[in-house]
Each structure stands twice: as C-alpha cells, then as structure tokens.
C-alpha cells in the first residue's frame, strides 16, 4: 500500500473494535467519540502531509525493497544524509503539532525499525525472533500503520520485582505456551494514544532479575485483539470545549491508557523475545532502540521548548512587562535554554556514531544530555509563563463574552494590552498560554517531558555510570603527574 492518507487512517480505525473503557463506559465508535475526534484529525493531518507536494519529498522516500513510497521514519540510516532525512521528518511533524504530541506515528516506527535492523541481537538468542521483527517491520511499513507502546509495569509495589508482586499476573507475564502462540496475562502502562492506534508493541526497560523470566517479553498485536482492554485515564477535555477558549487543549490531547491483557493469545510469529532475562535486559542498550527514538524526542522537545518560549515572550510583550529587568532576565534564560537544546541537537547530528553493523545514530552523549536537560528546562519555561502572566492568566473572558453586545465595550476596554494590542489579540494569547501553563492539559505536557522515556533521575545515574566506565580522567592524571615521586622528598611538617 505505501503511504496512507488521513482518510485511510480513519477508515482503518473504523474497521477495528478495540475494547476501550473511559469514564466507566465502553467506547464503541472511536472516530465519533468527542474526546478522540480532534486528536484523530491531528494525526490524520500528518498522514495527509505525506501526499502534500510541499512536504512529500522531505518526509517520505521510495523504498528500495518494494519500490513504494514510504515514510522516512522507516529509513534505516546508513549515512549522515539518511539520518538527516529522518531528522527533517521529525521536525516537520513536531512543528505541525508544536511538539505537543509526543507519540506521533514516527516515534514507534523508529523503534521498530531499530529493532528490526538489529536482528543480529535477537538472532543470538532465537533466530525466529529476528525473522519475526523483520516481517513485522515490513508489515507496518508497507501498510503505514500507527502504533502505541507500553513498556512500564503498573505502579503497584516498586520496591519489588515483577515476580515478587502479590499476584503473579499483576505485571504482564506469560501464562502458557500453546501450538498457536503464547498466552499472556496482566497489565502494562502507559500506552499513549492507544485508543486511536492500529497496533500495540510491548517491550520493557531493563531491570529484570532471575525469577522474572515469564515477564521478559516483547511482542506486537492489533489493538483490537480479543482479551485486550484499554482503560483510559480521565479525559482532560470533553471534546466540546471551544477552539477559541482552548486553542491547544481542544486539539492535541493524547489519551493515555492502562492495557489489561486477559489471557491474550500472541501468535508465535508476533513474539520478538520471551523467557530470557538477559535478552530483555540487553535489548535497550545493545540495539539502539533508545538512541534512535531519542532523536525524534530531542527534535520534538526542542520545538516544544521553543514554542513555550515564544508564547512567554509574546505574553510579556503584549502587556508591556518586558521593559523590566527581571522579566528580561527570565525571558533571556528561556531563549538561552532553547539555544542550548538546539546546539546539543546539532552536536548530536554532526558528531554522529556508526555502529559495528553500519547503523548511523546521533551522538548518544548529546542526546542523553538533552534528555537530562529538558525535564528542567520545560518546567522552567512554564514557571516563567505563570509568573509573567500572573493574575491575567485567570481573568480571560470566553469567546461567548466577545459575542455579547451588552459587555463587548467593557471587554474591549479592560482587556486591552499595551498600545497597539487589541483586547481580542491579548485574550487569545493569554488563552494559549493558559492551556500550556494552567490547564490539566498543560500539566500533562509537563509530566510528559519529565517521564516520557523513563525516570530522569535513574536515566542520569545510568548516564553517569556509563561515563565513568569510558572516561580516562587524563587531565587529572596529567595534573598529578608533576607530583609523582615527590612524597619522599617533601620536607616534613615541623610542629
Ligand atoms: C504523559 C506520559 C506519557 C507516557 N507515555 C508512555 C507511553 O506511551 N508508553 C509507555 O510505555 N510509557 C509511557 N510513559 C510512562 C513512562 O515511561 C513512565 O512514567 C516512566 O518510566 C516512569 O515510571 P513510573 O511513572 O512508573 O514512575 P516510577 O518508576 O514508579 O517512579 C516513581 C518515583 O519513584 C522513584 N523510583 C521508583 N523506582 C525507583 C528505583 N528503582 N530507584 C530509584 N528511584 C525509584 C522515581 O525516581 C520516581 O520519583 C508516559 C509517562 C507520562 C507521564
């Protein structure tokens, strides 16, 4: 099939009936569900961009295997140019959503591409697994499917491993092997956008201990596979809030879901890893399935930070407070933070790494530094926005108020900004800012930046430990070399 249109993506959603639960009710008509309607449109727009002459050459390419046009997220980069072709796609998709949608289709396409092209890793444990992931990669590439993923166990007792939980099947684990496949039971989280995707892929962060064998799993299945339930969190908007009042929250909410597997049959050809603690622990560090999607996350995070910074600057200007030194200092800090991330991205791309199998990846240290900095920089941008907007953020009238003739003069007079900024312009800007820094929608965006790819504290600790293993500390050795053999010749201290 090659690249899909937005309409074809929506047709795909209509053809499936996943078991979705939201606010105590079963959602049966996904595309017409008010909560999902607009986010579906936003994803459909990305699919349509693949056919738009303005973007097509920057976000798609002709697949050498099939001769069909496919998305650049399926490129297996073997050169700087191919890596940058992917980077361009990340940037275009991120700009189309202001970096506010983290799990656009490119994200998991890159994960699967990384896994499939590192078949040598799975081959060591079971050659069938590498064949399965390669076939799966072909399947989602050629049908242009949209995936969600769930890699975290439900948050029950974090002080115990999976096999130490009270119930054997609280965490997702294998129940039995059958001739047709593997039966799995238990839960995984936090599957962002799950209700509006085609497929789900399951794998895990490292951290398995002996005894966890049944939980060491990686597989993919259609989102409407029998026995799989999607339990949605509380929606942050009801789908009825106006675009005027909530210009971002009404468009870009990514629903998150807990996935509950009630004895779900995973066909053997969809199993990529099973019953092997070592393989599950090494999948992440050995195959680049962290580093390649971190490129997407870095580009997206950069756009999101730049967007929040623009909003803060415009907000300050609209009410004339950026004449003050303290406000200039805060805004200057945000602009510099954007420059830091932009520079790190450039370093990541120019100082790329080539693996033993010839895969080109952005520089790992630079990407991990972005990963470490954004959870501090994005909340800071939100804090500055809150401080600058102050009481005005809470005071915006609604779109209906602008349409009430009895109060329109008052609104035009008292919601005016600095000279040249009309009340409508100022209110629209404050509403944009409030979606980012006040609404539940904005709080989720902040939490996303902290946790989207694991706990930032443990990630930084892993980064430090890796650094320590590789570091030579040669400057310290140089500095100390002049004091070599001096101990014996030092004059003794006289008391
Ligand atoms: C908005 C959002 C979207 C997400 N989307 C997805 C998605 O699409 N797919 C997906 O799979 N996941 C997704 N995630 C989940 C994300 O991977 C996890 O939130 C992240 O890995 C942290 O795990 P946790 O939330 O269970 O926190 P926990 O691991 O339970 O951590 C809670 C706290 O305890 C501390 N802690 C816990 N265990 C330890 C330990 N062993 N050592 C030291 N400190 C510890 C942590 O530092 C943290 O402060 C998303 C998360 C968010 C917030």
Question: What's the arrangement of secondary structure elements?
Answer:
Layout: H1 6-14, E1 19-22, E2 25-27, H2 34-49, H3 56-59, E3 60-62, E4 69-71, H4 80-96, H5 105-116, H6 119-123, H7 127-143, E5 147-150, E6 173-178, E7 181-192, E8 199-202, E9 217-222, E10 228-232, H8 249-252, E11 256-267, E12 271-274, H9 277-287, H10 291-318, H11 325-350, E13 353-354, E14 360-361, H12 364-389, H13 399-402, H14 405-414, H15 423-437, H16 440-451, H17 456-470, H18 474-481
Parallel strand pairs: 1-10, 5-8
Antiparallel strand pairs: 1-2, 3-4, 6-7, 7-11, 8-9, 9-12, 10-11, 13-14
GO molecular function, one term: 4-hydroxyphenylacetate 3-monooxygenase activity
EC number: 1.14.14.8, 1.14.14.9
Enzyme class: oxidoreductase
Short description, anyone?
48% of the residues lie in helices and 14% in strands. By secondary structure, the protein is an alpha+beta fold. α10 packs antiparallel against α11, α11 runs antiparallel to α12 (364-389) and α15 crosses α16.
What report would you give on this structure?
With 495 residues, the protein is of the alpha+beta class. The strands form four sheets. A six-stranded mixed β-sheet has the order 2-1-10-11-7-6, with no helix packed on it. Helix 1 packs across helix 2 and helix 10 packs antiparallel against helix 15. It binds flavin-adenine dinucleotide (FAD). The site of flavin-adenine dinucleotide (FAD) has 20 residues, from strand 5, strand 7, helix 16 and helix 17.
